[in-house]
Design goal:
The structure is a homodimer.
Chain A: H1 2-9, E1 15-26, E2 31-40, E3 43-48, E4 52-57, E5 62-65, E6 67-72, H2 81-88, E7 93-98, H3 101-107, H4 109-119, E8 125-130, H5 148-154, E9 160-166, H6 169-173, H7 177-188, E10 192-195, H8 202-209, E11 215-216, H9 222-230, E12 234-238, E13 260-263, H10 269-274, H11 278-287, H12 292-299, H13 301-306, E14 323-326, E15 334-339, E16 342-346, E17 349-350, E18 385-391, E19 398-404, E20 407-408, E21 411-412, E22 419-425, E23 434-440, E24 447-451, E25 460-464, H14 467-480, E26 483-488, E27 494-498, H15 510-526, E28 550-553, E29 556-559, E30 564-565
Parallel strand pairs in A: 1-4, 1-5, 6-7, 7-8, 8-9, 9-10, 11-12, 12-13, 18-23
Antiparallel strand pairs in A: 1-2, 2-3, 5-14, 14-15, 15-16, 16-17, 18-19, 20-21, 22-23, 22-25, 24-25, 24-26, 26-27, 28-29, 29-30
Helix pairs in contact in A: 3-4, 5-7, 11-12
């Protein structure tokens, strides 16, 4: 192809595509320049005055390099990679660093491969990070385990780009043997390792970095950012649906600018649909005062440099022709999106077929449960005082409250209390594990709710005030292959939403998912769920045994501060 | 090793080496920080307060990352790689991107391998760029040819880091088939390509860049730099012995800073010894007004990023412990140099053995000539007017002057003129090629001078006013295996300096070379060479058929502006 590029660059032959009359951002010198941008095949071949076989008039528009999302779990959108692409590509994102941590916890390497294969023919480069921490903690039963040996074997795969966020930072800092094996395997394979080190400072941070870890997306304070950048990390500024740190953009200076990148981490379909993706992050950090050229550089060149994606993230000859033409640098509305030299989206609509789904059996029918019965949900307490979980609105941090309880026939009485039963039912290996607990203040009444998303092992989380309804909810989730469910005891009706891919994602389109999801959420609120909570997604973090304070896994109630299981009887 | 790094980082075990009480440059945030720098094995493991098995007190010193020379021909020092390292490592240079273009033109891949092997056990990382343009032009006979097929084969070698400066820019811009093959081979191997594109602008530059070329060290103007950086190139600021563009540092801004790097390109032993290497460049650009932190960043992190040298070029955990402790950021005097975690130089003196030389037969005895006779240097002209070369003082650009000539017995008469005979004798393949010309204004009288360095094919260049002396000079160069020679016709004496390695470099130490070199140069001046010229090195560029205006190769007189051979008869 080089000969073709050269001939077109010299204008001896017409370019395949020319973006005419563009203003474009030059991320190398931090300037806005004017000219035509000529494209041959998948490459930019020159800027200046060019004629093309195809031409797009970009008068009045500003052309930017396609955005790169430095860290994202596609699963969090609850969409298939195909549908995910159909939402983010028209927003201007052309490359993502994807860590299929969730589905790999459910399906093992088959989950990771599924994301890779489903993404393969999309107009979106999906760089697959091998999930490093499967399971995320040893205190639960996941669908798969990737130990040091497994990482060593799989990191060499061609389709694996690097090692995903090393959230097991205590294991790194303590030089846990299996952890070290994972890190060494990634280095031996010459692959980048993403980090995840919330509030890790000083000598602990030095130790963590000695694992050869390159990035962090968990920074909260300016001090933390300063230290992490100073010690060589790239810092992701995150624009997730719940976890957000766009405010960190205020710590960007001319001197440290090259070490910041953007990411979304976890972003739900509804957010992607309504607000956008990296474009939305740009809009907001520019509105908050970061100059737009720096902002765009964070989302493009910086991320490309961090991840060693050469010839990407800039508008210059031989660079990949991933381009987005926006209305202006305030609204970042994407008028045209070019991926690999092809126009793939216009006016926010994809120009590629998003109806096909790659759906291997390996990620379907992943809810493995024996037939559940009402008596499985009997909760026998020893005395009259017990520990109940509470959840802080809008957050994933839980509290522990000692509550007075009554029992009847060996089962806790919930009537006339603001308590509910919570159960985490293992759904991968038919162990029959059920962790049970009490949950206070959620507001639901008259049946049961359930969901097969529960970080990070994604067992079934059930909530209810009626054992029979909880059993019906579990059995229904098994029957539909995963998703969300509400059982209304009074009417006997079951309402549900199917997440057929690993019990995490829907194979349908975003609109259908959103419509059904909203209806189900509305029903949950109608049945009493406090509107301060995200009716289902707030449940999904109740088993995440790395975030304070009291959590419930299929193995039991867990005190995160003591980092040990704890008795429900207070 | 990761476990060891982590334990020391956490201070559970002592570090191997600690630089105590250092001020050090943090190139990531552009700040000077204070603390101890702890090292284990070849890595930095942390900054803070550390104890080490070995400790170096750096109170009052400033510690910098080891310097990286982004582009250098070791051969231009006229020293072996071992001796070269003994001069530059104590100055603080710990990594070089070396293009063995000169010796490869003489010895082919054996020359390239020699540089790699001779450099292997030095406390200096020598990244070998495969010379891309051997020969540099088709208008001369070189010792070797590396065509597209050869490049394709050799670029894959593990010891080859990238493809050396693509000086044949007309071939790139015209998409010459063999040139394209070379470029494609480098990309297929995933290796970086260095550039060399003097005064290439606009659509030609676009075309050149479509070869996938990353760097340029030939920029002269601010406009040229702006365009090249804007189009994605890294720009080397060069501190060579003759070619210098340190003044380009004034074009460094906060916005474009990350795209500048430093290099020396061609730097002679005497300069290295007396003035230094990258340290000297830093000293000078800081004296000229660039802030020292930016200057150091150019010489370290930027170069590492350009060449994809991860974990190098900064002082941070897991980074290579290549460090230089300097007195201050004005003089950049290197007090200590650490390479791969070991103290390798102190107070400007190497602490490593520099006496051993790797000297394979393949780079020795490279002057292949039949026995030359006086009659080989007879220059028969047709008329009374001829073209004579002139050389502009201090430069490599030559002129063409039409001169009146007399002939006697079929040979041009030089007595009572300021003309000399110039001859380029092919010395690689026994072709018997002799290019002959006239040279005006150099000032030498009474015999002959010769040298086996002549860019880029390194044939024998002879200059003289006596055929017999010229033949003796050539034969002597053959006998000593290459170097520089003066034949004094009056006394019959021969004075010479041996450059036994490829006829380009000495296997002796820098002091001996410098002493003998000075004596020989002094003798040349004593025999009349105008002191405006570098007596021998000015000759070495007279055959470089890519620099205007009139040049002489073994194939004849060459008009660079017409890009064709030309008749000496005017």
């Amino acid at each position: 192809m080089i000969e073709k590029y050269i001939r077109a660059a010299k204008r001896d032959k017409k370019a395949d595509l020319v973006l005419k009359n563009a203003s474009y951002i030059d991320v190398f010198t931090g300037k806005i320049r004017k000219g035509d941008i000529a494209v041959v095949g998948e490459k930019i071949v020159g800027t200046g005055e060019y004629a093309g076989k195809e031409e797009i008039d970009c008068s009045g528009l500003t052309v930017l390099p396609g955005y790169i999302d430095g860290h994202v779990h596609i699963e969090s959108s609850q969409l298939s990679p195909e549908e995910f692409a159909s939402l983010i590509v028209p927003r201007g994102t052309t490359t993502i660093i994807a860590d299929p941590h969730e589905i790999t916890n459910v399906c093992g390497m088959a989950g990771c491969e599924y994301i890779a294969k489903a993404s393969k023919n999309l107009p979106l480069d999906v760089k697959i990070q091998l999930p490093s921490c499967v399971p995320a903690t040893p205190f639960e039963t996941s669908g798969a385990t990737l130990n040091g040996k497994d990482i060593k074997k799989n990191i060499k795969n061609k389709y694996i780009f690097g090692l995903g966020e090393f959230m097991g930072y205590p294991g790194v800092i303590s030089a846990n043997r299996d952890t070290v094996k994972k890190l060494e395997a990634a280095h031996a394979a010459g692959k980048i390792i993403d980090g995840h080190a919330p509030a890790v400072y000083g000598y602990d941070l030095n130790a963590y970095l000695c694992g050869g870890i390159s990035t962090d997306h968990e920074c909260v304070t300016g001090k933390e950012i300063e230290e992490k950048i100073s010690k060589g990390m790239y810092v992701h500024i995150r624009h997730g649906s719940s976890t957000q740190n766009l405010g960190n953009a205020k710590f960007v200076t001319k001197e440290n600018m090259r070490r910041f990148i953007l990411c979304t981490d976890d972003r739900h379909a509804a957010d992607l649909k309504e607000n956008g993706h990296i474009d939305d992050a740009l809009r907001k950090i520019v509105a908050n005062g970061l100059d737009p050229i720096s902002a765009v550089t964070l989302a493009t060149l910086n991320c490309a440099e961090c991840y060693g994606l050469k010839w990407r993230g800039a508008i210059a000859p031989f660079y990949l022709a991933d381009l987005v033409a926006v209305d202006n640098l305030d609204n970042f509305n994407a008028k045209y999106v070019i991926k690999n030299g092809k126009l793939v989206a216009k006016d926010g609509k994809p120009l590629f077929d998003t109806s096909k789904r790659y759906l291997p059996d390996s990620v379907l029918d992943t809810v493995h449960l024996k037939e559940m019965k009402a008596e499985d949900f009997v909760l026998t307490l020893k005395g009259t005082r017990a520990k109940a979980m509470t959840v802080l609105p809008g957050g994933v941090v839980t509290g522990c409250e000692i509550v007075d309880v009554e029992s009847r026939n060996g089962d806790v009485v919930l009537e006339n209390t603001d308590l509910l039963k919570l159960a985490v039912v293992e759904r991968h290996k038919l162990t029959g594990n059920i962790g049970k607990g009490l949950f206070k203040g959620y507001g639901f009444k008259g049946g049961a709710m359930g969901i097969t998303i529960s970080h990070d092992s994604h067992n079934v989380i059930l909530l209810g005030d009626d054992n029979e309804s909880m059993a019906r909810a579990a059995n229904h989730l098994k029957q539909i292959g995963g998703g969300m469910v509400i059982v209304d005891k009074a009417s006997g009706e079951i309402y549900s939403l199917t997440l057929d891919i690993g019990g995490l994602m829907s194979s349908r389109n975003a609109d259908d998912l959103q419509r059904d999801s909203r209806a189900l959420i509305e029903r949950a609120h109608a049945m009493g769920v406090n509107r301060e909570y995200q009716a289902f997604m707030s449940l999904a973090f109740l088993s995440l045994a790395v975030i304070p304070k009291l959590k419930l896994t299929d193995a039991g109630l867990f005190d995160v501060e003591k980092f040990a299981f704890t008795d429900i009887n207070a």
